[in-house]
Write a structure and sequence with these properties.
Layout lengths: L21 E10 L2 E10 L5 E7 L7 H12 L3 E5 L10 H16 L4 E11 L1 H9 L6 E7 L26 E6 L7 H13 L4 E6 L8 E2 L2 E2 L3 H17 L2
Parallel strand pairs: 3-4, 3-5, 5-6, 6-7, 7-8
Antiparallel strand pairs: 1-2, 2-4, 9-10
């Protein structure tokens, strides 16, 4: 069902500046009878390691997300970025959930993955999916949601809002957001955090003053800014503490 496919764009790279040697490649993950174009990077050693599934933003699997996958792999995580927009710009929540489930099955075929230590991260729409799926999918031991949409739902394609599922959340969640986010205003994130706190859920909220929506990237690449660097460090440290 799940078939990794090397393409001419497959890479074998050494991330000396980041730490461990990394092998990155384009892969396909089959879900619902369709092959989703995705990207995977892993530390070169074959010993079992924690893993992360990454869900890109509404703007697609940009180069910056591929670079971030390499960065996470260099930090010791087998990382799979799922190309959830391969066939539709805005698939249903059910379609994305099934793809993430199949992404987990794909990771489960690899000998270098510790399936008891898998995390989920996402950005923009992917941040909403992280908030939405983390309570539902107990295989994930931690999540990091970048500038997500906790109250988006109530449509045929998106029937549930993440904030409605707080009671089901058992994994720790890191929320990363900027105060100048116009797409997902910070007031909604503060309200979401208050609900998490009232429900005694384990979470951390990292807020970056003056940062807009999507501040990880600039022109489709990882932004060379304090906020981008610091938030990435925060994510890596959160996963290191949570995925043991």
């Amino acid at each position: 069902m799940l078939k990794p496919t090397l393409t001419l764009a497959a890479l074998a790279l050494s991330s000396l500046a980041l730490g461990q040697a990394v092998k990155g490649m384009d892969v396909t993950v089959t879900s619902g009878g369709k092959a989703y174009r995705s990207y995977l990077a892993a530390p070169a050693s074959a010993t079992p390691k924690p893993a992360v599934i990454l869900l890109h933003s509404f703007r697609g699997l940009e180069q910056g997300y591929r670079d971030l996958v390499d960065e996470l792999a260099a930090a010791g995580f087998v990382t799979l970025a799922l190309g959830w927009q391969t066939f539709e710009q805005e698939p249903s929540d059910g379609t994305v959930k099934t793809l993430v489930e199949d992404g987990l099955k794909y990771l489960g075929t690899r000998r270098d993955v510790n399936m008891n230590a898998v995390g989920l991260t996402g950005f923009c729409a992917g941040g909403r999916y992280t908030m939405l799926l983390l309570p539902q999918m107990k295989q994930f031991r931690a999540g990091v949601a970048w500038y997500g949409f906790p109250d988006q739902g109530g449509t045929a394609a998106k029937p549930q809002a993440p904030s409605a599922l707080i009671g089901q959340l058992t994994a720790p969640l890191l929320i990363i957001h900027g105060t100048r986010d116009q797409a997902s205003p910070i007031a909604g994130i503060y309200a979401y955090a208050q609900k998490l706190d009232a429900a005694n859920k384990v979470f951390k909220l990292s807020v970056y003053q003056g940062e807009p929506h999507g501040f990880l990237l600039a022109d489709s690449r990882i932004a060379d800014t304090f906020a981008s660097r610091d938030a990435r460090r925060d994510m890596v440290n959160y996963f290191r503490e949570s995925l043991r």
